[in-house]
Here is the input.
Amino acid sequence: MKIISSPAEMQQTALELKRSGKTIGLVPTMGFLHNGHLSLMKLARPECDVLVVSIFVNPAQFGPNEDLDAYPRDFERDESLCKGEGVDIVFYPEPGNMYFSDASVWIDEEALSPGLCGGSRPGHFRGVCTVVAKLFNLVLPDLAVFGEKDAQQLRVLERMVRDLNFPVRMVRGPIVREADGLAMSSRNKYLNAEQRQQALCLKQALALAESLVRGGEKSVANIRQQMVVLIGTVPGAEIDYIELVDDETLARVENVESETLVALAVKIGPTRLIDNAVLHP
Ligand code: PAF
Here is the structure.
């Protein structure tokens, strides 16, 4: 397994691989890898000749009061996990090498980004789109795998690929959960034992929405209200948003009549966690 930290060397290597007819798969990550990331690598591995994992805590997608500096990092552990998954190249750039200090071109997706996480994290998806476009230009992947836990990110990036004609096949990786249902996230590391228990309310609220819809409930107001009540019973849990939106357009819906994405962000103490499910009426 090769580790490349220079963007120019990454692009040169990718160009040579393409010239020799190899297909490239990319799993973009911010490191501190867990089983969710490994599941994305497992999906990509049989689909490409050369598997690249990028590890880059992208400053452009963090707001001024967010956890950029505190974001957990452990490159040695990440490296050995990548080896275990048969990764060929780890692209591990320095922030100073990824962005010019006077960078002035950014990618704004305008339809799907403003609500949900985009509402509470202004500029977040601009940072995500820009870094992923840069990674696509440096790694030249034929396919890229993104996790469904970041449901909005996935849809925003799929739209970017469509609208800007990136020749990249986008693959969705299902959410991977701990045995008790908590969606895997690098940010789970911030939770103490008590908060770890409290964090289960995200999955419980989603399960409640699913069971209400299975029982015939259609009203978004009713479903949302019951989710709010459930989370309200958990001390230390503060709702950032709970939204039920059209699965494709991410527009709010009043009734669950077609595939509906139920997505929520909840602060458990200082840690903001997200989770989601697709409701099938
Ligand atoms: O999902 C993530 O870890 C990041 O948003 C991504 C896609 C690697 C871009 O920095």
Remarks:
- The chain has a mean pLDDT of 98.
- The two ends are 46 Å apart (CA to CA).
- The chain has ten helices and nine strands.
- The pocket of pantoate is lined by residues 28-30, 58, 61, 128, 131-132, 150, 153 (CB under 6 Å).
